[in-house]
Specification:
With 408 residues, the chain is α/β, with parallel strands linked by helices. It is built from 14 helices and ten strands. The two termini are 13 Å apart.
C-alpha cells in the first residue's frame, strides 16, 4: 500500500478516536476531518431532497451542502429539533435550531480509496450507533463526510467479546487474509508486545507519520516503541475526561441502605479501604439471589488498581524502557486484587459482566465507553460513576488508566 494510503487510513483512525469522545457526550461535531479547530454548530437550513419541493426544509438532517442525509435503509433521517417544534394542531412550524453539519469538501491532495470499502473493527460495541441515540444524526454526518472525503465506504464490524475478537484477528493474520480488516481497534494487553514480536504488525516508521505531532501522546508512544520502531501510537484525546472508573447501580445502594460511592467522593475518602468496605457491604443474599459488591467489566482488576496506586509499568533505565514489575505499588495491587477475589469474595467467579447488566452486582470497574451500555441495561437515571479509588501510595491523587491504545 502506498504511503499516502497509510496516511489516509491513519487520518480515518484518528477521526474515529475523536468520534468516541464526541458521541459519548453528544456534543456538536468537531471539524476533525480537515484538522481545523472550528466547531460546526447548528444553523444550516435544509434545502429539501433536490426535487424542488421545499415542504421538507428543516424536517431532516442535512450535510453542509443541504443534501438530506439517509440512513442505512435509504430513509431520510428526521431532525429531532424540527419535529419537536411542530404544532400538533395546526401543523405550523416555528423556528428551531438546525443540526450540526460537517464539511465534506475534499482537498486536492487527498486521492482517496477509489470507492473501496474500508473495514473498521472493534470488540463488543462502540463503532455503530443506534438510530434512537440523540447523537445519531451527528454520527451519520461524520461517517458520510469521511466517506466523501476519502472516496470510500466505511463498514463497521463489532459485537464479539474481546478474547474471541482477538482470536479471529490473529487467525486472519496467520492465514494472510488481507481483506479481513483495514483498521482494527485492538486489545492492548493482548497485542502488545506479542503482535510486534510475531511479525503480525509492521512498524509505522517510514510512512510519513510525525510521532511528535501533538495529536499523539509522545511519552506513551515512546514507551511502546520496540527496538526503536513504533508499532503503537497513543492518541491524545482531550475531551474524554476520565477514561475509566467505577460505575454503580444506584437502586441497589438505596435498597440496601448503604452509602454509595458519591458519598465517599464528596468527603474525599474514596480510597481502597472504603472501596473494599462498600464491596463487602454490597455482597449479600436476598430472596434466594446472590448479590456481589463489584466486578471487572471487560478488563482485569490488577492493572486498574496498580495504576490507581501510582504505579508506572515502564521506567527508563540507562536509556532503555524496562518493565517495572517489582515496584511495591504493583505488588500491593496484586495483593489487593487477590483479596477481593479470594479472601473477601466480593467478585463473582462467573459471568461478571452479565450479572452487573442484570442488577446483581453493585459496582463495575470499566472504561468510559461502557456507560451507554449500562444506562441502556439499568436505566438512564440508575447509573452512577466515580473515578477509580485512590491507592495508599498515590499521594491522595485520583489516577485513571488511559485504557488500551488503538493502533494500525
Amino acid at each position: 500500500m502506498k504511503i499516502s494510503k497509510w496516511r489516509q487510513l491513519a487520518a480515518i483512525l484518528l477521526a474515529f478516536c475523536l468520534l468516541f469522545g464526541i458521541v459519548g457526550c453528544a456534543r456538536v461535531v468537531e471539524e476533525v476531518i480537515s484538522g481545523s479547530a472550528k466547531s460546526k454548530t447548528s444553523g444550516t437550513t435544509a434545502e429539501g431532497d433536490g426535487t424542488g419541493d421545499d415542504d421538507d426544509a428543516g424536517d431532516y438532517l442535512t450535510d453542509s451542502t443541504g443534501k438530506i442525509l439517509l440512513d442505512s435503509s435509504g430513509n431520510k433521517i428526521v431532525n429531532p429539533s424540527a419535529s419537536k417544534s411542530k404544532s400538533g394542531s395546526s401543523g405550523s412550524k416555528t423556528s428551531s435550531s438546525r443540526p450540526a453539519t460537517v464539511d465534506t469538501s475534499k482537498p486536492a491532495d487527498v486521492k482517496g480509496f477509489g470507492g473501496a470499502t474500508v473495514v473498521i473493527s472493534k470488540w463488543v460495541t462502540g463503532l455503530n450507533m443506534d438510530q434512537t441515540n440523540p447523537a445519531y444524526g451527528q454520527w451519520l454526518a461524520f461517517v458520510q463526510a469521511l466517506e466523501a472525503k476519502y472516496n470510500c465506504k466505511l463498514r463497521f464490524d463489532e459485537g464479539k467479546e474481546s478474547s474471541a475478537y482477538m482470536d479471529d484477528l490473529t487467525h486472519a493474520i496467520n492465514a494472510g487474509n488481507k481483506s479481513f480488516v483495514d483498521i482494527a481497534f485492538i486489545v492492548g494487553d493482548v497485542a502488545y508486545p506479542s503482535y510486534a514480536f510475531n511479525s503480525y504488525m509492521k512498524p509505522l516508521d517510514g510512512y510519513g507519520l510525525d510521532f511528535n505531532d501533538d495529536r499523539w501522546l509522545a511519552k506513551s508512544s515512546e514507551q511502546m516503541a520496540i527496538n526503536g520502531k513504533h508499532y503503537f501510537l497513543a492518541p491524545y484525546i482531550d475531551n474524554l475526561g476520565v477514561p475509566g472508573g467505577v460505575f454503580f447501580n444506584k437502586s441497589l445502594f438505596v435498597e440496601r441502605g448503604i452509602a454509595d460511592p458519591y458519598t465517599y467522593m464528596a468527603n474525599n475518602t474514596w480510597n481502597w479501604d472504603n472501596f473494599k468496605k462498600v464491596a463487602k457491604d454490597m455482597t449479600y443474599q436476598s430472596g434466594g439471589t446472590q448479590y456481589y459488591g463489584v466486578c471487572n467489566y471487560g478488563s482485569q482488576p490488577i492493572p486498574i488498581f496498580a495504576t490507581a496506586n501510582g504505579y508506572v509499568p515502564y521506567v527508563k533505565r540507562d536509556g532503555r524502557w524496562v518493565y517495572n514489575g517489582e515496584d511495591s505499588r504493583y505488588i500491593k495491587a496484586l495483593q489487593f486484587s487477590y483479596d477481593l477475589y479470594n479472601t473477601d469474595k466480593v467478585i463473582p467467579s462467573s459471568n461478571p459482566m452479565g450479572m452487573f447488566d442484570t442488577g446483581k452486582v453493585a459496582m463495575a470497574t470499566a472504561a468510559y465507553h461502557n456507560g451507554r451500555v449500562f444506562m441502556d441495561k439499568l436505566g438512564d437515571g440508575n447509573v452512577g460513576f466515580v473515578p477509580n479509588p485512590i491507592g495508599p501510595d498515590a499521594n491522595g491523587k485520583i489516577i485513571s488508566g488511559a485504557g488500551t491504545a488503538p493502533s494500525l
